[in-house]
Amino acid sequence: MPASDSLPTTRADRRARSEQAILEATRAILAEGGVPGLTIEGVAARSGVAKTTIYRRWRDKDELALAAVWNDLASGLQAPRDVGDTRAELLAFIEPLVTILRSTLMSSVIRGLTSEIAQDRDLSHAYREQFIEPRLAQLALVIRRGVERGDLRPDTNVRLAHEFLVGPVFYRLLFSGQPLDEGLAPRVTDAVLRAFAAQ
Amino acid sequence: MPASDSLPTTRADRRARSEQAILEATRAILAEGGVPGLTIEGVAARSGVAKTTIYRRWRDKDELALAAVWNDLASGLQAPRDVGDTRAELLAFIEPLVTILRSTLMSSVIRGLTSEIAQDRDLSHAYREQFIEPRLAQLALVIRRGVERGDLRPDTNVRLAHEFLVGPVFYRLLFSGQPLDEGLAPRVTDAVLRAFAAQ
Amino acid sequence: MPASDSLPTTRADRRARSEQAILEATRAILAEGGVPGLTIEGVAARSGVAKTTIYRRWRDKDELALAAVWNDLASGLQAPRDVGDTRAELLAFIEPLVTILRSTLMSSVIRGLTSEIAQDRDLSHAYREQFIEPRLAQLALVIRRGVERGDLRPDTNVRLAHEFLVGPVFYRLLFSGQPLDEGLAPRVTDAVLRAFAAQ
Amino acid sequence: MPASDSLPTTRADRRARSEQAILEATRAILAEGGVPGLTIEGVAARSGVAKTTIYRRWRDKDELALAAVWNDLASGLQAPRDVGDTRAELLAFIEPLVTILRSTLMSSVIRGLTSEIAQDRDLSHAYREQFIEPRLAQLALVIRRGVERGDLRPDTNVRLAHEFLVGPVFYRLLFSGQPLDEGLAPRVTDAVLRAFAAQ
DNA sequence: GACTAAGCGAGACGGTACGTCGCGTCTTAAA
DNA sequence: TTTAAGACGCGACGTACCGTCTCGCTTAGTC
Predict the structure, then answer these.
(1) Which member of B119, B127, B164 has the closest CB to residue A164?
(2) Does any strand F atom come closer than 7 Å to the Cβ of D39?
(3) What is the 3-state secondary structure (H, E, C) of chain C?
(4) Would you tell me the crossing angle of helices D158-171 and D184-195 to the nearest 10 degrees?
């Protein structure tokens, strides 16, 4: 801070620094009390930032919470590479999601935000645009390769397949309370393979 | 002496009458503004009942909202009868759920309560106990008959099958925004039949 | 008649017994939390009596509190006997009041009731009628004897003298927080004697 | 920083403006219904201020009520000037108190607050510190001059004299209901003069 | 090198709803 | 008839956060 010329502190720098402070504080609070424990006032106090600074960047606490976990969420879900094995690729598609949702932070954030995502027009739109659509695109490639290999029916519906892959995962997370254990991804994958097998 | 059909006003009567007034007001408010628009104060004002009377019966607005739709939810989901046709019975299991969730009231309530169900220990416990477990029991009968008929694999896992049936439905409701159209139930049913087909 | 040898329980008995239970509970609660801690609901719970039974006898918690300490208050303040010494008789008039108000129970009750006595028409009327007037009558006798003995001026105003005797005591109790110590009564007495001395 | 003298709506300004609105509303409500009629919610509604803003400044309605009349109370009770006449100065000490307490507003406020002042540690402390002690200091000067003039005994106890002057006034206000008429101050003054006369 | 304006911290404010307390009324059922 | 039991409408409480709105300070980039 005093370091005269060490940190040139452009406006963008200041912006970035307070943004980082906010997101870190948000993650810390989320880890402690989940979405219900998250308040803008709390984030402001913890990050040493003014409430207005937070409101300048995010509309409400839901957007903030999503932003706080966005990187981890997005970066953990990469497109499966072509490994010549449809089952392996489907597994590579769904396994990371299960793993991420097993983490306390991410699971509690998703649990807490689901109602908002399901209700808020803007938030749901953003969620689909930025999260679901890219995932569908990833899955479409896997399925196309599976069809070409003769593993999957040519008319396999990508959306439906996606719903079968992730539906059970979210259902466990949100409703049934069944564990997101290591057997889940393979079992889901196998069921999908059978459901959409060629012939 | 019971004055035939006047108003005998026993304690239970008063209790029941204000309970009805509360639940009706709750449904009306839910229909208008969904769970976010539901406030205890609003219900009290609309039902002509004191706030305390509401708090005497339900811990918070989530329990109240669930109670308000409970009857419709539970009564709409009956065990499929044995009709000698596994596909028809699976359809009879999942179709009513899709239909119910298509209604504005029920879908907005479920959307709004999901986060609470997923986060609140008591509420999630109650939800599983009173809602999921009975449904699993219903499905178990259908699957047993399917196995006996040679339609389903003997080792068909009821929980997994249930997750495959309802997971896509809730995923549409909460995240993808895809419509709960008439084709959904049959498509889900067929996929499950293939995924767990005998042989 | 049927009650064989147990308790004949006439209606008056029941009435008296619950009244005693109420007053005892009231005193206990007053001793613990003073007038602010006194609630009708608390008294009902503690005495095992229904709220309605309390309301049948006393209009509100102020009347109840006053009733609960009434006996002690009234019985402690007897008319000074003629002992041939005006100073001794004035002392015998004011000393017991100071002593009573030194007790934790009585002082906290008076502190807590003062505003009600000062504001409520009925309560203030009852207080004057049942408490102040008898005391004035007691003091009038003392003063008349003092005048006859030549100790006090013949035109000594009883009300004014009374105000001088008790005013400082209540002022300490309510406002100044000065102790109601043993020197207070004599000092007040002497001042009054001088203020109204003959000649 | 100096802000000259225009209308720059500084933070202090906003603070002062809402404070004035609150105190005015408080006085109006007190005038109408006394302390029992005073509610924070009522003050908020009448002053157009949020409840929280009131709670930010005063702990409860008693502090608020006291604050609302504080100026009138304090400004009305000035130290008697040296006029070379002890009786006149004692009268100048006690007369304004009687006059103030004759006003409907002030008398009803004091009646309503007395129990709180007598019971609440903080409030009673504040009352003594800010109100009684300054008055004792005023009276001490009067008495010192009276002693120097040979009107009062050299060992005249200021606290006791104060209690004799104000005790009767408050006793009338709170308990006896006797009027605070114009004769009261002179009679109290004369009695005190006799009680503490030199020789 | 001085000036402008962006961005920020600070924090007061109006507001909504919360969940709680105790009031005093009322009705029923038991003694 | 009196009581206990207890549900109820009601008013107010004090609290938690919300999102908005200045206000000055600090500083970066422009003239």
Answers:
(1) B164
(2) yes
(3) CCCCCCCCCCHHHHHHHHHHHHHHHHHHHHHHHCHHHCCHHHHHHHHCCCHHHHHHHCCCHHHHHHHHHHHHHHHHCCCCCCCCCHHHHHHHHHHHHHHHHHCHHHHHHHHHHHHHHHHCHHHHHHHHHHHHHHHHHHHHHHHHHHHHCCCECCCCCHHHHHHHHHHHHHHHHHHHCCCCCCCHHHHHHHHHHHHCECC
(4) 150
Vertex A42 angle, CA A37 and A45, to 5°:
160
Nucleotides of F under 7 A from a protein CB: 1-25, 27-29
Spatial separation of the C-alpha atoms in residues A133 and A111, rounded to whole Å:
21
Q: Determine the residue among D38, D166, D175, D192 to mutate to test chain C binding: the one whose Cβ has the most chain C Cβ atoms within 10 Å.
A: D175
Q: Determine what percent of chain D is predicted with pLDDT higher than 90.
A: 88
Q: Out of D111, D127, D170, whose CB is closest to C170?
A: D170
pLDDT score recorded for residue D167: 98
A175 or C72, which is more confident = A175
| The pLDDT of residue B102 | 95
Q: How far is CA D148 from CA A172, D89, D92, D143, D152, in A?
A: 93, 14, 18, 8, 8
Q: Does B104 touch chain A (CB under 8 A)?
A: no
Cross-chain CB nearest to C114 (options D108, D118, D157): D118
B198, B99 contact by CB (below 8 A) = no
| Chain B residue numbers touching A132 (CB-CB < 8 A) | 175-176
Alpha-carbon gap: A172 to the closest alpha carbon of chain B (Å): 8
Q: Are B163 and A159 an interchain contact pair (Cβ–Cβ within 8 Å)?
A: no
Q: 3-state class of A71 per DSSP?
A: helix
pLDDT top residue among D131 and D3: D131
CA-wise closest residue to D195 among D146, D153, D136, D144? D153
Quote the CA–CA distance of B192 and B181 in Å, as a whole number: 18
Distance from CA of A127 to the nearest CA of B (A): 8
pLDDT at B81 over 60: yes
Residue B59 DSSP code: S
Token output for D108: 């009803």
Q: What percent of chain D has pLDDT over 70?
A: 94
The HSE-up count of residue D5 (CA atoms within 13 Å, CB side) is 0
Q: Would you place residue A9 in the very low, low, confident or very high pLDDT band (cuts 50, 70, 90)?
A: low
